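Appendix C reproduces, verbatim, an entry submitted by the partner laboratory led by Prof. M.T., so that reviewers can inspect both the input and the predicted structure.
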Amino acid sequence: MIIFSIGQLGWSMLSGLINAWLVTFYLPTQSDIDAGATQFIKPGLIIFGFLTILGLITAASRIFDAVTDPLIASMSDRSKNPRGRRIPFMQYAAVPLSIVTVLLFCAPVNAISGINVAWISVFILLFYLFMTMYCTPYNALISEFGKTQDDRMFISTAISLTFFAGTLIAYTPFVFAGMLRESVGFSWGYRICFIVIAVIACIAMLLPTLLLKEKEFVDTKPSEANMFKSLASTFKNKDFRVFVGSDIMYWIGLTLFQTGLPFFVKVSMEIDESYTMIFMGGMTVLSAVFYPFVSGMVRKFGKKKLTICGFLGLALAYIITALIRVIPINGVILGGIICVIAAFPMALLGIIPQSIVADVAEAEGIVTGENREGMFFAARTFAMKWGQSIAMLVFTSLAIIGTTQNKNANEITASAKGLTIVAVCAVAFCVLGAVILAAYNEKKVMSTIQSKNKTEEK
């Protein structure tokens, strides 16, 4: 299980590079341009009045990504490869994914050019294709490798920690690129860091595929259903539909907060933007401290109750965020309070939902006789991506209320009023997520799994 979790360290590093650096690299601020950054594509909010060219490319690529999720899941579920249904996909995807990630930051024309736009468009599609080829089968193995509830919680905790570590590593170019800048130039200072991270990530992703023999741990029958039938069957499961509805609310609320954090810091709290990294880092580290306690709490209280508590805990953090301009406390102290309150709910919601999907997938397999773990996790990923996309649209629409937007700038101009509305919306989405999850029948799912275990013991 530890070897398995190393795979998530690898892909989270590459995902972190895209999340942290794609916009920063291709839409540099004026201070970066003054320091030697190159403008590779035309800047400004010139698409529909609220999107950059890069924003449109990214939005289109996420739609492509959402479509490929069920396709790869179906191919993996139906695979009859003698080495297993999952690991061959992961092995084939690891090297191309690492290479494509680096090439995405290597636009060929060292100036604003349509060729660069085409280059970014192609390689971001390839990035999401190979990412899906690795992550969808990988996530399906959570259910298949985790034979017991304790195993699943251990795996969910381990991959949450490696995801946290991989994301932190993806931010290291903030430190090392500046050291290289004088000798190799602004762009190559970052590219060298990206290459080193991609090599480490590739090794991490390959380790589980080389050291683990899937057939020794997993004995499942490939699904015979095609993609559309498999996807339809997956969403026929009422408990899974309830979970997905709740999960979409979670991702909308979380993304609204994460996207808005720099704006809350600078506009609402009226403190230096550098505190964004301090707050995010502190919240993540504190959240990781709680990870070891989650498994014990699950055994005592169950997954459903704790997940609902996670929703309500995040809602409380967002309520305080909405009241930033009202509460008479220093911005730095208030930011710290918000991060402390949000840390434990983030620990709960970072670990338990993966395990819930694994439970529902196993129970469905017991009832129907079809092993479609890949499709269940692909559907969950689909929900995550749509939740994130909806959140970005909501944020860019609401945050600018009460201010005049500069269409020639890459960044949106947020107002305190707009950010308060964003925080209130995040509260509403979290509460709605808790209400929806209340309909999840955890007792039925767990009794189905337990009945199978008792039969096998006999």
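The chain has a mean pLDDT of 86. Additional entries are available on request from the coordinating office.
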